[in-house]
Design brief:
The complex is a heterodimer of chains A (134) and B (324). Chain A has 134 residues and is α/β, with parallel strands linked by helices. Chain A has one domain: Cobalamin-binding domain (Rossmann fold, 3-Layer(aba) Sandwich). Helix content of chain A is 41%, strand content 18%. Chain A has a five-stranded parallel β-sheet, sandwiched between helices. Chain A starts with 6 loop residues before the first strand and ends in a 5-residue tail after the last helix. The mean pLDDT of chain A is 92. Chain B folds into three domains: 46 residues, no CATH class; 207 residues, P-loop containing nucleotide triphosphate hydrolases (Rossmann fold), CATH 3.40.50.300; 51 residues, no CATH class. Helix content of chain B is 45%, strand content 13%. Chain B has twelve helices and eight strands. Chain B has a seven-stranded parallel β-sheet with strand order 4-2-5-1-6-7-8, sandwiched between helices. In chain B, β6, α7 and β7 form a beta-alpha-beta unit. The longest helix of chain B is centred in the last third of the chain and has 24 residues. Chain B is globular, with a radius of gyration of 22 Å. The chains are: A alpha/beta (134), B alpha/beta (324). At the A-B interface, α1, β2 and α2 of A face α2, β3 and β4 of B. β2 of chain A pairs parallel with β3 of chain B.
Chain lengths: 134, 324
């Protein structure tokens, strides 16, 4: 084993039932050589934080199309920090208005990927920005 | 962090004190086969051996994750601690993986007496990752009473879990095959318990009867392994399965000198031996000799057995014997 795969949690917090995008991304990242933990629909922020902790992921990708991102994403960032996971890269995608991006970044989100982002753009960003590990 | 040994000592002491983040990082080190992992396992191995390691295996879609989730629910209701190692396949093309077993195991966020960890098989055949056994030893050492090992979806011959677990539960779905399937060599032979899941589907009873009829007379004696019916999605039959798993403790499945644990120790020592030999072969001097030997074999100037003998001999610093 020469190159350790980067481990990513793709999570869908909140109540919207649209997970096609998250699944397509998970599949695309698999094809890019990532180990992708997929946890399914309707996650609470606590579930996301627990999964990130137990799986020791390098990156958390949150997919939200419900409009609740301003509530859910900062809460998840808080929980991750409380668990000692401040070094985990947090990214968000889905339907997130540009106006909300600065507040999300202030909460701890590293990047927001809007509609039209390609999987290879996401993969490149992940490779360039995942925390360095032993 | 200082040296790998210091890092290992630090992670072990915090993990043993109950810190779940340290535990998670130890498991990552184990998966990545780092020097920290080896140092940690030297410390933790003597503390392991108390947990009941339960393997759950069966074909894709038989309901392994759902059944594991149901078992976790019953264990937690009884106040027992449980860890789950869920293995999913890695892509043979890119090395990537989708680890999707947590989808069915969501109800336990915030419960620190449940620890669920996904593992990619990383090219290892046999239904597990090569480091699954070591990961289980870590979870055992930090005190989980039951460690469940969920294999990748298996076909007929991924029997490695039987060596990794004290108790192997083989899941079947109704109407997956006739009686000839039940007498084929492989997975069903290593079952300590056979479960026909999706018991609410037509044919579950018939499948269970066929399995009961055909599995007797094997290594578990005239009656064969118990065959149970569960419906993991509703929980039907799950308490009975848990009771059957617990009975294995009384049957000596967890005895240190028992056949199961001896077989596991054997596999662990062989695995470590193989790793050490491979690592030595990757060292600069040996890598050169190995490359040369491989080219000779590719050109059919020598055979692979001679090449292996010569490499092994130069590793051990002895003259090649006359074994050819």
């Amino acid at each position: 084993m020469t190159e350790r795969p980067i481990k990513v949690l793709i999570a869908k917090p909140g109540l919207d039932g649209h997970d096609r995008g998250a699944k397509v991304l998970a599949r695309g990242l698999r094809d890019e050589g990532f180990e992708v933990v997929y946890t399914g629909l309707r996650q609470t922020p606590e579930m996301v934080a627990t999964a990130a902790l137990q799986e020791d992921v390098d990156i958390v990708g949150l997919s939200i199309l419900s409009g609740a991102h301003m509530t859910l994403v900062p809460r998840i960032c808080q929980l991750l920090q409380a668990e000692g996971l401040a070094d985990v890269l947090v990214t968000a995608g889905g339907i997130i208005p540009d106006d909300d991006v600065p507040a999300l970044k202030a909460a701890g989100v590293s990047a927001v990927f809007g509609p039209g982002t390609t999987i290879s753009e996401v993969a490149s960003y992940f490779r360039a920005n995942a925390r360095p590990r032993e | 962090m200082g040296s790998p040994a210091e890092a290992a000592a630090e992670l072990c002491s915090t993990a043993l004190a109950g810190d779940r983040r340290s535990l998670a990082r130890l498991l990552t080190a184990v998966e990545n086969r780092t020097l920290v992992a080896e140092g940690a396992l030297r410390r933790l191995y003597p503390l392991a051996g108390r947990a009941h390691l339960v393997g759950i295996t069966g074909p894709p879609g038989a309901g392994k994750s759902t059944l594991v989730a149901a078992l976790v629910g019953h264990l937690r209701a009884a106040g027992r601690t449980v860890a789950v190692v869920a293995v999913d396949p890695s892509s043979p093309i890119t090395g990537g993986a989708i680890l999707g077993d947590r989808v069915r195991m969501q109800a336990y966020a915030g419960d620190r007496d449940v620890f669920i960890r996904s593992m990619a098989a990383r090219g290892h055949a046999g239904g597990l990752a090569s480091t699954t056994g070591a990961a289980c030893a870590v979870l055992d050492a930090v005190g989980f009473e039951i460690v469940m090992i969920e294999t990748v979806g298996t076909g007929q011959s991924e029997v490695e879990v039987a060596a990794a677990a004290d108790t192997t539960v083989v899941l079947e779905a109704p109407e997956m095959g006739d009686e000839v399937q039940a007498i084929k060599a492989g997975l069903l032979e290593v079952a300590d318990l056979v479960v026909v899941n999706k018991g609410d589907r037509p044919g579950a009873q018939r499948t269970a009867s066929q399995l009961r009829a055909m599995l007797g007379g094997g290594r578990r004696g005239i009656h064969g392994p118990p065959v149970l019916i569960t419906t993991a999605a509703t929980g039907a039959g799950v308490p009975e399965l848990l009771a059957a798993i617990d009975r294995r403790r009384g049957e000596g499945a967890l005895d240190d000198g028992g056949a199961t644990r001896l077989a596991r120790a054997e596999a662990e020592v062989s695995g470590a031996l193989g790793d050490r030999i491979r690592r030595r072969l990757d060292e600069p001097g040996m890598a050169l000799a190995r490359g040369a030997a491989v080219r000779e074999v590719a050109a059919h100037r020598i055979d692979p057995y001679t090449a292996a003998d010569e490499l092994l001999a130069s590793l051990l610093g002895v003259e090649t014997g006359s074994s050819r």
